[in-house]
Fold this protein.
Amino acid sequence: MPLKLAENFPAVELLKQENIIIGDASSDAGQGGRLLRLVVLNLMPLKIKTETDILRLLSNSPLHIEVDWMRIKNHRAKNTPAAHLEAFYKTLDELRDRHYDGMIVTGAPVEKLDFQEVTYWDELTSIFDWTRTNVTSTLYICWAAQAALNHFYGVPKYTLPGKMFGIFLHTMNEPDLQIFRGFDDEFFVPHSRHTDIRREEILKVPELMMLSESREAGVYMAMSRDRSEFFITGHSEYAPYTLHDEYVRDLNKELPITVPANYYPDDDCSQPPTVRWRSHSNLLFTNWLNYYVNAPSH
């Protein structure tokens, strides 16, 4: 599938090496297909790495997709060059009048803070509200899922006694939904978080459906009953070595951290990790694009 990106976007060359077709900003949908417009609010600290991870998953579909990138206006990123953000990212003020078929909001390293203590909370909730009038389907990931559930439905988050860190087995509560088309009865998902949402809090909200859980990791996926919002607590978009990099980072900072569960063979961090989640991650994003972003109502 052609992804429509700026020619000098950093992820382009890497994706081309992986045989992912990239179109430039002047290319059209081709073959009579409709061009789907997506926007990604990238709150992750390593933005360029996250861009590549997300684009890799969006590529596994015959759909033609154009991706815009959104940033928080009043927040200065510490780990991404300002020139990159200025060249490729826009604020809500610049995108307010646009309508998108889909939106992805990533996690952010602020989960230990109360929501209202996050410096950009007011701007973020304005973006959340904007999605309900300007986006067909929104996918909220990790902390963004917790934040949106709290903002829209009053669902609280809870601090865990230790970091939920590793690859965990999940099951489906609603296996017949199109988001799970092609899924096995059990599937693995990476998690990396210090906070949690509880199933009983989701079940209290009539507008929400509980879609998937893990015996070890708890709630994984919930959906609004109108299918316009998905809330995912894990990191299905993670590349094979992302958990390894986080583990080494925390070790070097002498932070309390355990070996990521079900990740290294025999928990030996000198061995390459075993990738158990790639196929279902691809299915998740492809199904979201096919059945919810590319909605029949269009």
About this structure: Residues 148 and 154 are 9 Å apart (CA to CA). The radius of gyration is 18 Å. The chain has nine helices and twelve strands. The longest strand covers residues 158-172.
